[in-house]
Design goal:
Blueprint lengths: L1 H19 L25 H6 L8 H24 L1
Helix pairs in contact: 1-3
């Protein structure tokens, strides 16, 4: 059972990271956003949207990679703490 829960958490983390990246190609919910929240558009790419108009927009992919590393590290630390 622990492996199934771990795989579900890893799958959810991968979904979130993929949605935050510029590589999201799916449109799974209406244009007014997920559950009506405008800050969750169907086209994804939130990191690029957050950085638009700043000096850091050229580093979008690098910033996404650092965020992905930090998120995955946090998930691993929480998993180790709860199952250890």
């Amino acid at each position: 059972m622990r492996r199934v829960i771990g795989l579900a958490i890893a799958g959810f983390a991968a979904f979130v990271l993929f949605y935050l990246s510029r590589f999201w190609i799916f449109s799974l919910w209406p244009r007014d956003g997920l559950l009506g929240f405008k800050f969750l558009p169907p086209q994804g790419g939130l990191v690029g949207r957050w950085l638009r108009g700043t000096d850091f927009s050229a580093f979008e992919l690098l910033i996404w990679a650092v965020l992905a590393f930090l998120l995955l590290t946090l998930v691993q630390k929480l998993w180790d703490r709860t199952t250890g």
